[in-house]
Amino acid sequence: MTDMTREDVTAMILTAKRQAGLTWEGIAEAIGMSPVWTHSAAMGMNAMPSDKAEALTAHLALPQEAALVLQESPTKVWTQAVPTDPCIYRLYEIVGVYGPTIKALIHEKFGDGIMSAIDFDMQISRVENPKGDRVKIEMSGKYLSYNAW
């Protein structure tokens, strides 16, 4: 068993990234994953397969013990009801305003069910616009129908 915690490893990753002047896109490319997944796993929200954990720790020159921690199944705990960070708050606002619409349209197109956040991928890109560049977030999750039992 290791004395290193997931929080310790996250702090080491952020320090190494900052000191090396790296981007999430560059780190993700180095380990062969998407930037969204790489960041989420580095922040402790996903377990890394051993080869990706090894690649990340090697790329960032982290201790070998960090690779073991990155492979552990995470406990996903959100401590804030509504975050105060403006970027994250706006995402909550989008879900608050458009959540019922998204749900209704999913039900119309697929039936009674949900979009998986486990069998899921996401892309974030910049779209140039004369009125000001736009953030484009594309999410794709497997449709999961509710079972009647």
TrEMBL record:
<feature type="domain" description="Cyanate lyase C-terminal">
    <location>
        <begin position="77"/>
        <end position="149"/>
    </location>
</feature>
<comment type="similarity">
    <text>Belongs to the cyanase family.</text>
</comment>
<dbReference type="InterPro" id="IPR010982">
    <property type="entry name" value="Lambda_DNA-bd_dom_sf"/>
</dbReference>
<dbReference type="InterPro" id="IPR036581">
    <property type="entry name" value="Cyanate_lyase_C_sf"/>
</dbReference>
<dbReference type="GO" id="GO:0003677">
    <property type="term" value="F:DNA binding"/>
</dbReference>
<keyword id="KW-0456">Lyase</keyword>
<feature type="active site">
    <location>
        <position position="93"/>
    </location>
</feature>
<feature type="active site">
    <location>
        <position position="90"/>
    </location>
</feature>
<feature type="active site">
    <location>
        <position position="116"/>
    </location>
</feature>
<comment type="function">
    <text>Catalyzes the reaction of cyanate with bicarbonate to produce ammonia and carbon dioxide.</text>
</comment>
<protein>
    <recommendedName>
        <fullName>Cyanate hydratase</fullName>
        <ecNumber>4.2.1.104</ecNumber>
    </recommendedName>
</protein>
<dbReference type="InterPro" id="IPR003712">
    <property type="entry name" value="Cyanate_lyase_C"/>
</dbReference>
<dbReference type="GO" id="GO:0008824">
    <property type="term" value="F:cyanate hydratase activity"/>
</dbReference>
<dbReference type="InterPro" id="IPR008076">
    <property type="entry name" value="Cyanase"/>
</dbReference>
<dbReference type="Pfam" id="PF02560">
    <property type="entry name" value="Cyanate_lyase"/>
</dbReference>
<dbReference type="InterPro" id="IPR048564">
    <property type="entry name" value="CYNS_N"/>
</dbReference>
<dbReference type="Pfam" id="PF21291">
    <property type="entry name" value="CYNS_N"/>
</dbReference>
